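Researcher: I'm preparing a figure for a lab meeting and need a structural model of a single chain. I don't have an experimental structure, so a prediction will have to do for now. The sequence is pasted below. Please return the structure as tokens so I can convert it later.
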Amino acid sequence: MERAWNEIPVRVLDMSTVLKPSDAFALVLEEIEGGHRRLALIIGAVEAQGIRIAQLGYRPPRPFTHELMLDVMKQGGLEPVKGVISAVKSGVYYADLYVQRPDGSVYQVDARSTDVISLSMRAGFPLYVLDEVLEREQLRYISPDGSAYTVPVNMVDLDTLKQEMQAAVDKEDYERASQLRDEIRRREAEEKEGKE
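Model: Understood. Here is the structure written out token by token.
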């Protein structure tokens, strides 16, 4: 299946050491054609373990969930052909898995980004990020050795924003605290509108 003009191919570059909270990791994706943009997804320990297993090429004696899913698709004549990370909202990345039926038609399935990444690493299908998402959410201010960077506020969940705001207040960094407060208010207003 051909990619759309705004789908940028990416690969898994690295996964960070543990962040705060202690069960969170930063999974870094890197643009692989021409550019050097990087995108970090904050993921949980279980998702990190699934991706790490795929990175190592480990085949468990009994199938884990991703191996099971790929085996079921294969037995049903279905083939995953691409994964696309298409949006981010309140720290959650949204993705679609494209699957080809035996008749050649392709359908799109809403999926967690980490599942699409894990499946891509196991099955070898390409992974993309929409250009507008990659441009807006890319890592900024990367240190020369790549070990430190600033993540966009969109990729952090509301609870983490509140913790960071309190930490900024405790450090008397009131400018940062007010920026975080404004983002918290914006998200809470969006949530309220969504419930009405």
